[in-house]
TrEMBL record:
Residues 1-158 form the Obg domain. PROSITE patterns: G_OBG, GTP1_OBG, OBG, OCT. Its EC number is 3.6.5.-. This is GTPase Obg. Residues 118-145 are annotated as: Disordered.
Length: 427
């Protein structure tokens, strides 16, 4: 099954909690704080695996969670950090945040990695909070929650050469005779519903990847037929091979076919026409093909190289393959939306800065505090210890929460809620 688009959920592992502990050892005067830090949570990491060609595995598993870090221990022992959770993806995978639409990663070559959900920071043990003024603190931190996201994965087939053309012009047959691929071939439109890939070995022993892509029809750039399902895959190719039924077996004019397909490519993204293009005049074994080829060459005016072939009888293929290989040697891949840059592969994008907190009024007239920073501090506070709660209130004050509540009209005795925790506001 070929799958080229899925939505999944990822969550980094939570950091391990720090510990409150004190030394109780013989010959150690007064002991001292000895609570260790927790371990960091494991991140969820996507890694390109060259052998994969589809996102079908994500159809059966849509939730990916990193392992949590180990909690800190006594005697100053730190908890183990969790290893990253590495998820293999096929080359050509684009990763987007499903909620914001932000591009997170564009993974192309084997072994490339992208951190898509960071593991949480480890909580600190009470050893870390010792000061001359407070040499025996009873404060520790909980581990930071791991980052969680809804992601949208899109696969754009990664091939050096893409075969384009109307349905039933012989693209699948051509692929089957120049590679070991065995696409479905039949005498009806849209036999090819998903891209097929194969490796071509030229007569002079050069090789490249060729993709037989679903047939285009007029209006594809607007979503007609397979529409964008096809066109997104042609973006990755470096050379476009335009296959034309030169015999006009379905009553269409070959030159008119050529213009319509190029118009659809241009409407989808005008820069597609900047790619090198080779015209393959197929079905030359059919009646009328020779006459049509003469007329076609006059109309095209030597703008593109034209190769007369018959995929069915396997004639004229060698020169075509050599020319494609020559074009590939002088053509580099570059994204369609911008000129190539040294860092064209986006490995990780940090989130845009968000407000530290927001204040709203709940339906029950309770003041509600929300925001990523304030919720992170809340999750990392150990509410079982009074000194930790006191520290949390100081952190809120330093963020300006007290003053912001006063400015919004909060009064003594009002209830304030953070997630599910409620406390009384004191002015």
């Amino acid at each position: 099954m070929f799958v080229d688009g899925v939505k999944i959920y990822v969550k980094g592992g939570d950091g391990g909690d720090g510990m409150v502990a004190f030394r109780r050892e013989k010959f150690v005067a007064n002991g001292g704080p000895a609570g260790g830090d927790g371990g960091k949570g494991g991140s969820v990491v996507f890694e390109v695996e060259e052998g994969l060609r589809t996102l079908v595995d994500f159809r059966y598993k849509r939730h990916f969670k990193g392992n949590p870090g180990e909690n800190g221990m006594s005697k100053g022992m730190h908890g183990h950090g969790a290893p990253d959770y590495v998820v293999p993806v096929p080359p050509g995978t684009i990763v987007k945040d499903a909620d914001t639409g932000e591009l997170l990663a564009d993974l192309i070559t084997h072994g490339q990695r992208a951190v898509v959900a960071k593991g949480g920071r480890a909580g600190r043990g009470n050893r870390r909070f010792a000061t001359p003024a407070n040499p025996a603190p009873e404060i520790s931190e909980n581990g930071e929650p791991g980052q969680e996201r809804n992601l949208e994965l899109e696969l754009k087939v990664l091939a050096d050469v893409g075969l384009v053309g109307f349905p039933s012009v012989g693209k699948s047959t051509l692929l089957s005779v120049v590679t070991a691929a065995r696409p479905k071939i039949a005498d009806y439109h849209f036999t090819t519903l998903t891209p097929n890939l194969g490796m071509v070995d030229t007569p002079d022993h050069r090789s490249f990847a060729m993709a037989d892509l679903p047939g285009l029809i007029e209006g594809a750039s607007l979503g007609v037929g397979l529409g964008h399902q096809f066109l997104k895959h042609i973006e990755r190719t470096r050379v476009i091979v335009h296959v034309i039924d030169m015999a006009g077996t379905e009553g269409r004019d070959p030159y008119d076919d050529f213009l319509k397909i190029n118009e659809e490519l241009s409407q989808y993204n005008y820069r597609l026409l900047e790619r090198p293009q080779i015209v393959v005049a197929n079905k030359m074994d059919m009646p009328g093909a020779e006459e049509n080829l003469v007329t076609f060459k006059e109309q095209i005016e030597d703008k593109y190289p034209v190769f007369a072939v018959s995929a069915l009888t396997k004639t004229g293929l060698s020169n075509m393959l050599l020319e494609i290989a020559n074009k590939l040697e002088t053509t580099e891949y570059f994204p369609l939306n911008e000129e190539p840059t040294e860092d064209q592969i986006v490995m990780y994008k940090h989130e845009a800065e968000k407000p530290e907190f927001e204040i709203s009024r709940g339906s029950d007239a309770v003041w509600v505090l929300s925001g990523s920073e304030i919720e992170r501090l809340f999750a990392m506070t150990n509410f079982d210890r009074e000194v930790s709660v006191t520290r949390f209130t100081r952190q809120l004050r330093s963020l300006g929460v007290d003053q912001a509540l006063r400015d919004r009209g909060a009064k003594d005795g009002d209830t304030v809620r953070i997630i599910e925790f409620e406390f009384e506001f004191m002015d």
